[in-house]
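Summary for the lay section of the report: proteins are chains of building blocks that fold into shapes. Here we show the chain for Transcriptional regulator SbtR-like C-terminal domain-containing protein and then a coded description of the shape we predicted for it.
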Amino acid sequence: MRGAGVGGGGVRPVRVARVCELQATDPAVADVVSGRFPAAERLMVICGQAHDAATRIIERARLAGAVRPDFTSEDLLLFFGTNAALARAVADTAPDAWRRQVAFLLQGVGTGTAHAPLSVPPLVSQQVYEVLGRLTTAP
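The coded shape description reads as follows.
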């Protein structure tokens, strides 16, 4: 990823970081973005629409050579879910610790550095939702 973003509607690091910041500062946003309430049908429809949009955006970024060819919308969705959990976990101890993980993700998905092939395939959508359901289940 170059600079503040990728042209042509591609993945924009500033926007990904902003979503993560909103997750860290507003628990309701974290719940929505991570699909914490799968029984809320209207909410899950919106989450599905956002996932579809993310898929299109990531595909455009891949075609433009702005992100690794193996980066998927499921990877981004799983990242948002884990960021929401991380933001909750660090809130009292190190409230900005989530920012480091965001930086690693954004640098890691870019094409500016060489990447070895990953030894583990991406999760499919159903797996991501199952994982997020376990990860974000209210205690």
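Put simply, here is one thing we learned. Residues 47 and 116 are 32 Å apart (CA to CA).
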